[in-house]
Amino acid sequence: MKNGAVLTVNDLRVYYDTPAGTVKAVDGVSFDLRPGERLGLVGESGSGKSTMALALMRMHKPPARIAGGEVLLDGVGDVMELDDEGLRRIRLDRLALVPQGAMNSLNPVMRVRDQLADGIRTHEPGDDRDALTARIRAQLARVGLDADVGGKFPHELSGGMKQRVAIAIGTSLSPSVIIADEPTSALDVVVQRQVMETLRSVQEEIGASVLIVGHDMGLMAQIADRMGVMYAGKLVELAPVHDLFTNPQHPYTRLLIESVPTLMAKRALASIPGAPPTLINVPPGCPFHPRCPSAFEPCDSEVPLPTSQNGRVVSCHLYPGEAA
Amino acid sequence: MTAFLEMTNVSKVFSAGIIRRQHTVAVDDVTMTIDEQSPSILAVAGESGSGKTTLARLLLGVIPPSSGEVIYRGQSVDDLSREQRRTYLREIQPIFQDPFESYNPFYKVDHVLTVPAQKFQLAATKQETTRLIHEALDMVGLQPAETLGRFPHQLSGGQRQRVMVARAMLLRPRLIVADEPVSMVDASLRATILESIRRMKQELGISVVYITHDLTTAYQIADNILVMYKGSVVEAGSVEQVIRDPKHPYTQLLVSSIPQPDPSLPWGAEGEIAGDPESMEVAAVGCKFVDRCPVAFAPCAGQRPPLYHEHPSRAAACFRYDDAPTLEGENLDLVFERQLASQPASGSEEQAAN
Ligand SMILES: Nc1ncnc2c1ncn2[C@@H]1O[C@H](COP(=O)(O)OP(=O)(O)OP(=O)(O)O)[C@@H](O)[C@H]1O
Ligand SMILES: Nc1ncnc2c1ncn2[C@@H]1O[C@H](COP(=O)(O)OP(=O)(O)OP(=O)(O)O)[C@@H](O)[C@H]1O
Ligand code: SF4
Ligand code: SF4
Ligand SMILES: [Mg+2]
Ligand SMILES: [Mg+2]
Questions:
Q1: Which of A209, A221, A285, B258 falls between 20 and 30 A from B149, CA-CA?
Q2: How far apart are CA B145 and CA A226, in angstroms?
Q3: Coil, helix or strand at residue B24
Q4: Chain A residue closest to B261 (CA)?
Q5: In this structure, are residues A122 and A91 in contact, taking their beta carbons and an 8 Å threshold?
């Protein structure tokens, strides 16, 4: 394991086989998740973020397949190589997913407490009834919910409450890695802030690392320690959050940040010219070159490799640093 | 002069539970008008479950009000003739949050454009239909050649959403009701889609009801805003007044909770969320926000605050403004700015033109 990372992703590739061709949704992504950190992952819609989040837990479904790479989980080894029993054991216990849209992920005909009990029981069958009840109570309290929420069905809860239940389930066995895919995109800012505070406090309590996928740059700025930016199946930039916002290096990152509106001034909303590529037919060279205002000679033929400098990684010919 | 669409004292109550019946007042006594002469963009904001989608469904005629009336061109939506209802359904078009759910995966995306074109007999010939479809796609910045003939999963989320905007535009509606149209897409696509919605207002004179959690984009594209809390309008007015200078404590909380895209700024003020943020119970009397309000005082628990017209383009339902007159007839039209140009200086237009 490199420099004590909890999770190390090396050259991960996840492809969808479709009649129209192979969609290279995740195409050679590498990064580490450090102990206790919150790593934000943003990027173009359709750039492969959700595909990667699912694949890290081997929860991707056909036609998606792992086309290469490894995902090293501290103390476990390569998740991509585990058998079903091995996977069952690490899910929830070591690696937990809070999926996109809690409304769809909760079982609509099961009470909240039974959904919580399910996960705990499969991993720790020894617990007796009273101990289980106490744990469920404590777990609900941890995410700021009353014990009586345990007796409710999902449709009786508000969006924010459901999202907290999903966090309670995801963290019930104190996993070392939590992967949260757009945990708050359907919620208003007040509830969003509460849910994120909840996630943060649970994370700090159990000492987990979190990978948060999202579109809201404001939220990311507030919650993440480091941020990764994806474009067309590739991680194009990875940097401490402050550096990324104050000094974005990759032209895509810079334009993405410029397109975020603020309350400061009213102006036309700026967007990045051109259309995102289809991942069946990714442009040669740098996938961003048809839209990049800084494109130069090598960009349309040579794929830029990740280079690293001062704790930042960027894949762009403008930064011919040390190979990462 | 009859208005295009009016809501007069509209409420919607949902009842659930067989033994212990529970009533949720999803929309509580809303009065407003959408007229044709001065198209505008109205943002509707408020917490999850505050009734925004219910308000949209009432405007769209998907659900009937429990009390009050929705009036289309002078006639209650309940009493429209078949022919009138058809026009009503064409003139008000929805755009939803998740474009994927609006598609049938087995049909090419063309389907969502050709079916309504035929249903509403937009054109006499096939060529004419095709021309209209191309025009609508152009308007949202999509290349017909790269869009038509594909299946929904072959388009990106943002492309799918823009097809839905094109579809809405194709029908030449007078009003578009967009419920969280951009919460699932990245910032750049968000800008593209919102700019195409703004162009609909400017170039085609279509009014828009823009339901969103995102007060920043509401500020950027809307003229007016209505903030809901547990079914009631707690503050309404021009975006300049309401977002830049919110008066209701709930709106103040909402605005201060906007996460700024700058890691050196704090997220919200420390310790300002009082009470149980998401308790779904509402006291039968008194201000609905009283259990969370940091500045509640004696009158708050006894009576429901009316909307006070404390600024020409803003009203707030809070007793702190009881020096001001109450908003006449609780009619939100009085605070909405009609002629306000929400457009930015023309110099910055090129950026968005793609
Ligand atoms: N079942 C599938 N079959 C074929 N292609 C797919 C499938 N699911 C996803 N894709 C494609 O894979 C790419 C990556 O999709 P993914 O959902 O991972 O993107 P994302 O970054 O999470 O996007 P968003 O921000 O919109 O959620 C997209 O181009 C998408 O069209
Ligand atoms: N069909 C229904 N039956 C019963 N209750 C309903 C129904 N539709 C909505 N409600 C309730 O009405 C209230 C308002 O819901 P609505 O969907 O309008 O809120 P919203 O503001 O759109 O929320 P969100 O931001 O989460 O989309 C909620 O308490 C909701 O549970
Ligand atoms: S490699 Fe070239 S085209 Fe790609 S982002 Fe860098 S400058 Fe632009
Ligand atoms: S009426 Fe009272 S409780 Fe309600 S928002 Fe105003 S001050 Fe707060
Ligand atoms: Mg996704
Ligand atoms: Mg809604």
A1: A285
A2: 40
A3: strand
A4: A218
A5: no
Domain carrying residue A83: 2-323
Are B154 and A278 within 8 A, CB to CB?
Answer: yes
**Distance of alpha carbon A148 from alpha carbon A137, whole angstroms:** 9
For residue B20, the SS3 value is coil
Best interface-test mutation with B: which of A153, A266, A278 has the largest number of B CBs within 10 A?
A266
Domain edges within chain B: 1-223, 227-337
Residues 6+ apart with CB under 8 A from A270: A258, A259, B191, B348, B351, B352
If we measure between CA atoms, which residue out of A156, A157, A115 comes closest to residue A132?
A: A115
User: If we measure between CA atoms, which residue out of B288, B178, B175 comes closest to residue B235?
Assistant: B288
Buried-state track B177-209, b at ≥16 Cβ within 10 A, e below 16: bbbbbbbbbbbbbbbbbbbbbbbbbeeeebbbb
The answer to whether A194 contacts B277, with C-beta atoms less than 8 Å apart, is yes
Six-digit token string for B100: 């994927």
Q: Which atom of ligand 1 is nearest to the CA of B155?
A: 31
- Span from the CA of B182 to the centroid of ligand 2 (angstroms): 19
* pLDDT tens for chain B, residues 1 to 354: 678 999 999 999 988 666 666 778 899 999 999 988 889 999 999 887 789 989 999 999 999 999 999 999 999 999 999 999 999 999 999 988 765 566 677 788 888 898 888 888 888 888 999 999 998 898 887 888 878 888 887 777 777 888 888 999 888 899 999 998 887 778 888 888 898 888 889 988 999 999 998 899 999 999 999 999 999 999 999 999 999 999 999 999 999 988 888 888 888 765 555 444 455 556 668 999 998 899 999 999 999 999 999 999 999 999 999 999 999 988 998 999 875 444 443 433 334 333
**Is the CB of residue B245 less than 8 Å from the CB of residue A205?**
no
Number of domains present in the structure of chain A: 1
In this structure, the residue with its CA closest to atom 14 of ligand 2 is B51
Fold of B1-223: Rossmann fold (3.40.50)
Closest Cα of chain B to A128: distance in Å? 32
The dihedral built from the CA positions of residue B52, B56, B57 and B59, taken in this order, carries a sign that is positive
Write out the two tokens for B349. 């237009």
User: Is there a contact between B249 and B289 (Cβ–Cβ < 8 Å)?
Assistant: yes
Residues 6+ apart with CB under 8 A from A158: A191, B48, B49, B278, B280
Q: Give which of A174, A177, A153, A176 is closest to A165, Cα–Cα.
A: A153
For residues A52 and A103, the answer to whether their CB atoms sit within 8 Å is no
A44: domain CATH number is 3.40.50.300
In this structure, what is the dihedral angle of CA atoms A247, A250, A255, A260, given to the nearest 10 degrees?
Answer: -50
- Kindly state the helix (H) or strand (E) to which residue B29 belongs, with its residue range: strand B22-34
Q: How far is CA B125 from CA B117, B132, B143, in A?
A: 11, 11, 22
- Neighbour count for residue A18 (Cβ, 10 Å): 13
